[in-house]
Amino acid sequence: MLLSISWRNVWRNKLRSLVMVIAITLGLCAGIFSTGFYLGMADQRIDKAIKTELSHIQVHQNNFRQAHDITKFIPKGDSLVREFNDMPLVAGASPRIVIFSMIASAENGYGVKIMGIEPKFERKTTNIYTKIVEGNYFEEKKKNPIILGDKLAEKLKVKLGSKVVLTLQDVDNNIISGAFRIVGIFNTVNTTFDESNVFVKYEDLIRLTNLPAGACHEIAISVKNDEDVNLVKDQIAKATGSLEVMTWKELSPEMSYLTEAMDIYMYIFIVIILLALLFGIINTMLMAVLDRIKELGMLMAIGMSRVRVFFMIMLETVFLSLTGGIAGVTLGYLISKYFETHKISLARWGNVYTSIGYDPYVYTSLDWTYIINTTILVFITGVIASIYPAYKALQNDPAQALRIE
Amino acid sequence: MSIIQIKNLTKIYDGKHVEVKAVNGINLSIEEGEFTAVVGPSGSGKTTLLNMLGGLDRPTSGEVIINNVNIWNLSPSKLIDFRLHNIGFVFQAYNLIPVLTAKENVEFTMELQGRPSKERFERTKSLLETVGLGDRLDSRPSRLSGGQQQRVAVARALAPKPKFILADEPTANLDSKSTEMLLDIMEKLNKEEKITFIFSTHDARVMKKAKRIITVEDGKVLKDELK
Amino acid sequence: MQIPHLGKTLTLAWRNLWRSRWRTLITAASVFFGVLLSTVMSSMQEGSYSSMIDNIVKFYSGYIQIHKEGYWEDKTINNAFKLTDSLTEKVKEVPEVTNFAPRLESFALASSEEITRGSMIIGVDPQAEDKITNVSKWVVQGDYLKQDDDGVLVASDLAKYLDLSLNDTLVLISQGYHGISAAGKYPIRGILKFASPELNKQTIYMPLHEAQYFYSADSLVTALVLMVEDQYHLDKGIKHMRQILKEPYEAMTWDEMQPELLQFVEADRAGGIFMKAILYILIGFGIFGTVMMMMAERRREMGVMIAIGMQKNRLSLVLFLETLYIGFLGVVAGFLGSIPIIAYFYNHPIELTGDAAETMIQMGVEPYMYFSWLPSVFYNQVITVFVLTAVVAIYPIVNTYLLKVQMALRGT
Question: Which of residues 386-405 of C touch B (CB under 8 A)?
Answer without folding.
Answer: 405
